[in-house]
Amino acid sequence: TTDQAAIDAAQALVNKVQDPTVKADLQKDIDKAQSLLDGQNEQAKQNTANTAVKELFTNNDPASNAIKDTTNQKAIDDAQKTIDVLAAGPVKTALQADLDKAQDLLDARTQQAADDQNQKAVATYAVNQLFVNNTPASDAIKASTDQDAIDSAQAEINKIKDPALQADLQKDLDRAQELLNQRNAANQAEQAKQDAARKAVNELFNSNTPASNAIKPTTTQATIDAAQRLIDTVTDPTTKAALQADLNKAQSLLDAKNAAAATEKAKQDAAKKAVDELFNSNTPTSGAIKPTTDQKAIDDAKKLVDAITDPAVKAERQADLNKAQDLLDAKNAAATEKAKQDAAKKAVDELFNSNTPTSGAIKPTTDQKAIDDAKKLVDAITDPAVKAERQADLDKAQNLLDAKNTTLTAPKVNGYGVTDEYITGTVDANTVTVELYINGVRKKVSTPTNGDFKLYAQGFGLKVGDTFEVRGVD
What we know:
- 61% of the residues lie in helices and 6% in strands.
- By secondary structure, the chain is mainly α.
- Among the domains are: 203-263, no CATH class; 265-327; 407-474, Immunoglobulin-like.
- A hairpin with a 2-residue loop joins strand 3 and strand 4.
- Helix 11 packs antiparallel against helix 12.
- The protein is rod-shaped.
- The model has no long low-confidence stretch (mean pLDDT 93).
């Protein structure tokens, strides 16, 4: 129970003692008590200071080198006051060293907190810049936001030491990353759609390029429709428009090709029909043309064949047309030959009585001219057997005429020189005409007048050795 008040009270009493010896002894005891009380009080102060300092640190241990979250400047200042009342000595020195450590740690934490606040502002700006309208509340990232921008913002967040300050920023950044991942996935899907559509469209064209302005032979409406379905899945309007323009080009080229093919098919069908109808049973393999097939029909079919573009089909139709032409030519040649034969037979038959060589007599009107005219018709015949038959009848007529002519009195020829202009003479009354033959060839015919005949004899180039004959014809 001895405290400073008790000692002070005792000191007051000692101070009233007059006897110096007694007073000295009493003072000695008072001093001893004071010393004991002072020692007791110092230990208490040290204990208080020690507790105050330790409680600044994690686990109440300065060796942890970390102060508690609750340690602040007031706590340190209060601990300093408990140290300040200590007597100088190693205990005070050690406690002051620990307190200084706590102060350094608090200063560092305070500085770090300030730095974190500054860094938070930097990081917040970086994160906000990722979002539309510079606010995570938009829940949409800017078109310019990419992985580099997010990584850069993450680096700024990582510079903040206080996890609590990082939390909200990290949440916003994680959302930006999620949105970017979604956009990248959508972009990848869109790119895949664009690539598939572009490949499909390109493969419609020669050399796999719309710039060729020509579609492949394998391009059909089905392949164009398939490409259209791929284009329809594309989202980007600019890319979609470009793809659609190229597809429209392919469609136009196919439409033109189909129209040309339809036109060509119509031409081929028309030509085939026209050519086939030249033949019996409407088939060239019949090997015979219809009776109605004439040159006009062949010429008309030829015009249709000439209009065909496909060389193989055109050649096939032309071959059939050539066959028809050959058959018509043969038919026409036969008809011409028949006409020649008929004309020759008629002319030869009409030389004879009853128009038949078997009569064995020529008509009174049959003369050398009639025989010669018939001869020309016989000479025009091609068939050797028929020609020989007609010639035999003609020879019969000639013999009969010659026999008839020999019954006449031979013409009497007056004297003639090669320079004379005319050959003259007389014939009997039955002589109808007088004929001049030079070297066996009839050259002139004249009708006698009152038994006198006159044949112009110039222009024949008579020379020595030539023979001429004057024949009378009744």
